[in-house]
Design brief:
The longest helix is centred in the last third of the chain and has 22 residues, at 297-318. The chain has two domains: 19-122 and 247-318, 3-Layer(aba) Sandwich (D-Maltodextrin-Binding Protein, domain 2), CATH 3.40.190; 123-238, D-Maltodextrin-Binding Protein, domain 2 (3-Layer(aba) Sandwich), CATH 3.40.190. The chain is of the alpha/beta class. The protein has helices at 4-24, 41-57, 72-79, 93-102, 137-146, 160-172, 184-193, 203-211, 235-238, 259-274, 276-284, 297-318, and strands at 30-34, 61-65, 87-92, 113-128, 150-154, 176-180, 198-202, 216-220, 246-254. Strands 1, 2, 3, 4, 5, 6, 7, 8 and 9 form a nine-stranded mixed beta sheet that branches. Helices cover 46% and strands 19% of the residues. The protein has twelve helices and nine strands. α2 crosses α10 (259-274) and α4 (93-102) packs across α12 (297-318).
Length: 323
């Protein structure tokens, strides 16, 4: 029994240290890792949250962009960071679901990162360029079957736009040629120019091109219509039920982060979602904010794992490999 006393004393001291750290946290700037280059939707939304979180925490939240390998380089940095609350990870479904299946990683996205909160959601939609004559989904599927091999722009192997196309093929019996691009911007340019016919794009980021008439949406890949553009039918209404592809952003910390610090970060994230000015900025981008029941770490943990389980067989059946 005497031999156990030093161990108990060590554990107790460590617990007190973590407790004291949590009570004073933060005492220095926090790094928010975004695993994508500047300028994209994840970077834009991440900066809005970083700014608002700084006001609550009383310390700078410095956004660090670490792009590459479909979001896995930056996510790896976050997963391997010290679990002290001074490195947080702001990212999306692409890096934390799709890339975690496509790539062979040196970290486990479910075990090495602790969820803090789901922050925004936004649907994808199936869009067409100037060279597609179809007026609705029925005509589009008939046109694709009569003209196999039509070009579908994707933003990298294993990206949401790629998986959307793979899933669309399997549900409709069509044959599509996937053409990789470095970003959504070049995809839209070639849709407008007629070099490619179709793509799946994140709705909030591509809404200006739809509103200007440069590209046409055939369906929203969601169960309900999008309040930002309520005239666009859902994929169920369009005739391809089940092709749902939500694009969501969330916040994580390295596993092992003290619970008190994780809880503090969750509370700060909820303050950001409740702040009228922040809500106005986010809704102005076209994203939707989750209801309170979806803002807990427990909800995000369950949802995250379920999304990986849903997409893994689709990715493996299509034999999607890293570029």
């Amino acid at each position: 029994m005497k031999r156990l006393l030093p161990a108990f004393a060590f554990v107790a001291a460590l617990s007190l240290t973590f407790s004291a750290a949590a009570q004073t946290y933060p005492t220095r700037p926090i790094t928010m890792i975004v695993p994508y280059p500047p300028g994209g939707p994840t970077d834009t939304i991440g900066r809005i949250f970083a700014e608002r979180m700084r006001a609550s925490l009383g310390q700078p939240v410095i956004l660090e962009n670490i792009g590459g390998a479909a979001g896995t380089l930056g996510t790896a940095r976050a997963a391997h960071a010290a679990p002290d609350g001074y490195t947080i990870n702001f990212s999306n479904v692409a890096s934390h679901v799709f890339s975690s299946v496509v790539y062979k990683l040196k970290y486990d996205v479910l075990k090495d990162l602790e969820p803090i909160a789901l922050l925004t959601t936004s649907p994808f939609w199936l869009v067409a360029g100037s060279g597609v004559p179809a007026r609705d989904m029925r005509e589009l599927i008939a046109w694709l079957k009569a003209n196999p091999g039509k070009a579908w722009g994707i933003v990298g192997s294993g990206s949401p736009s790629h998986l959307c196309g793979v899933y669309f093929q399997s549900l409709t019996g069509t044959n599509i040629q996937f053409v990789p691009y470095r970003g959504a911007g070049p995809v839209i340019q070639d849709l407008v120019g007629g070099q490619i016919g179709l793509s799946c794009l994140e709705a909030s980021a591509s809404r200006p091109s739809v509103e200007s008439g440069k590209i046409r949406p055939f369906a929203l890949l969601a169960k309900t219509r999008w309040p930002a553009m309520p005239d666009v039918p859902t994929i169920d209404e369009a005739g391809v039920p089940g092709l749902y592809l939500p694009f969501w952003h969330a916040l994580w910390v390295p596993s092992g982060t003290p619970a008190a610090i994780a809880n503090r970060l969750n509370a700060v994230a909820m303050e950001a979602l409740a702040d009228p000015a922040t809500r106005e900025r986010l809704i102005g981008l076209g994203v939707e904010l989750p209801p309170p029941k979806q803002q807990t770490p427990q909800w995000l943990r369950t949802y995250h794992a379920a999304e990986i389980d849903r997409w893994r067989p689709i990715i493996e059946a299509a034999n999607i490999k890293p570029e």
